[in-house]
Write a structure and sequence with these properties.
Largest sheet: none
Oligomer: single chain
Radius of gyration: 20 Å
Distance between the termini: 44 Å
Organism: Dendrobium nobile (Orchid)
Keywords: Membrane, Transmembrane, Transmembrane helix, Transport
Shape: globular
Subcellular location: Membrane
Membrane topology: Multi-pass membrane protein
Helix content: over 70%
Protein name: Sugar phosphate transporter domain-containing protein
Length: 339
C-alpha cells in the first residue's frame, strides 16, 4: 500500500514538475515576443540585460537569503578562468535568442533551436575530432531534414532572424562543450549556475546595451502610451526567466532522463501551438510537417543517447553519451530554452 502511494506521489510530482516547467518556459517566450511585437520595445539587448539582472538577484535571494540550495564554492581564480568564458557564451546565446524573436515567429525560432543537438555533434566532430557511433549520426538526419523543410516553407522567413537563431544554436552547443572542460570538478545545479553566471553576463552586456540601445530605449520610455504597464510586463518577464531556471532544478529531480527529453520536445510543440493561437502567424502545412519531423528527430536523438548511456561497463561509449541524467541538460537552460 505504501509503495503504491509512493509511486502515485512520484508520478504526480513528475507531472506537476513538467507542467510548471512548461508554464514558465512558454510564458517567458510568449512575453518576450509580446514585448518586441505588441509593446514595440525593439531592444533585445536591454531585455536580455533585464533578465540577467533579475536572475542574478533571484539566485542570490534563493541561495543566500532563503537557503533553498547550498552555495557551491568556486575559487576566485576559477571564476575568471572558468565561469567568465562560460558566461560570455551564455550571454551570446540568450541575446541571439531574443534577437531572433524580434524578427521571426516563435514557431520558427523554437524549431531552429531544436537544431542544437546536431550542431553540438558536428562541432565536436569537426573541432575536437571526437568519434560518434552511427546511431548518433542517424538520429540527426530527421533533425536536419526537418529544419531544412521548415526553413524553405516558412511564410514569415527573415534572414537576419534566421541567422541569429542558427548562431544561437552554435553558441548553445559551444556552451555545452566548454562546460565539459571548463567546469570539470564542479557539480553545478541550475540555481548555482545562474548565481555565478548571471552577474558576469550582466557586466558583459550592460555597456553594449547602453551604447547601442540606450537612446532608443529612453525615447520609447517617454513616448509609449502605457508606460507603467509596459514596464511591469518587461520586469515580469525577467522574474519569470529566473523562475524558469529554478523550475529546471525541480523537474530534473522529479523525472528521469527519457521523460525529460520527451517532455522537452513536447514543450516546444506546446510553445508553437500557443504562440500561433496568440499571434496568428501563418504556418503552411509543409512547415508544420517540418516542425513535427524536427521534434521527432530530437526525441529519437535523446532516446539514442539514453540507450548508449545504459551500456554495460567496459562497452565503448560515444563521447556525447551522457554519464548521468544531469549531463543530458545544458548547465544553463536556453532560456530559450528562456529567450
Amino acid at each position: 500500500m505504501e509503495e503504491s502511494l509512493a509511486c502515485n506521489w512520484g508520478a504526480c510530482r513528475a507531472i506537476l514538475a513538467i507542467l510548471q516547467w512548461w508554464g514558465f518556459n512558454v510564458t517567458v517566450i510568449i512575453m518576450n515576443k509580446w514585448i518586441f511585437q505588441n509593446l514595440d520595445f525593439k531592444f533585445p539587448l536591454t531585455v536580455s540585460c533585464v533578465h540577467f539582472i533579475c536572475s542574478a538577484v533571484g539566485a542570490y535571494i534563493a541561495i543566500r537569503v532563503l537557503k533553498m540550495k547550498p552555495l557551491i564554492q568556486v575559487d576566485p581564480e576559477d571564476r575568471w578562468k572558468r565561469i567568465f568564458p562560460m558566461s560570455f557564451v551564455f550571454c551570446i546565446n540568450i541575446v541571439l535568442g531574443n534577437v531572433s524573436l524580434r524578427y521571426i515567429p516563435v514557431s520558427f525560432m523554437q524549431t531552429i533551436k531544436s537544431f542544437t543537438p546536431a550542431t553540438t555533434v558536428i562541432l565536436q566532430w569537426l573541432i575536437w575530432r571526437k568519434y560518434f557511433e552511427w546511431r548518433i549520426w542517424t538520429s540527426l538526419i530527421p533533425i536536419v531534414g526537418g529544419i531544412l523543410l521548415t526553413s524553405v516553407t516558412e511564410l514569415s522567413f527573415n534572414i537576419f532572424g534566421f541567422c541569429a537563431a542558427m548562431v544561437g544554436c552554435l553558441a548553445t552547443s559551444t556552451k555545452t562543450i566548454l562546460a565539459e572542460s571548463l567546469l570539470h570538478g564542479y557539480k553545478f545545479d541550475s540555481i548555482n549556475t545562474v548565481y555565478y553566471m548571471a552577474p558576469f553576463a550582466t557586466m558583459i552586456l550592460a555597456l553594449p546595451a547602453v551604447v547601442l540601445e540606450g537612446s532608443g530605449a529612453i525615447n520609447w520610455f517617454y513616448t509609449h502610451p502605457s508606460i507603467h504597464s509596459a514596464i511591469i510586463i518587461i520586469l515580469t518577464s525577467g522574474i519569470l526567466a529566473f523562475c524558469l531556471n529554478f523550475s529546471i532544478f525541480y523537474v530534473i529531480h522529479s523525472t528521469n532522463a527519457v521523460t525529460f527529453n520527451v517532455a522537452g520536445n513536447l514543450k516546444v510543440a506546446v510553445a508553437i501551438l500557443i504562440s500561433w493561437l496568440i499571434f496568428r502567424n501563418p504556418i503552411s502545412a509543409m512547415n508544420a510537417v517540418g516542425c513535427v519531423v524536427t521534434l521527432s528527430g530530437c526525441t529519437f536523438y535523446g532516446y539514442v543517447r539514453h540507450k548508449l548511456s545504459q551500456q554495460q561497463p567496459g562497452t565503448p561509449r560515444t563521447p556525447c553519451t551522457p554519464r548521468t541524467k544531469m549531463e543530458m541538460l545544458p548547465l544553463v537552460n536556453d532560456k530559450q530554452d528562456k529567450a
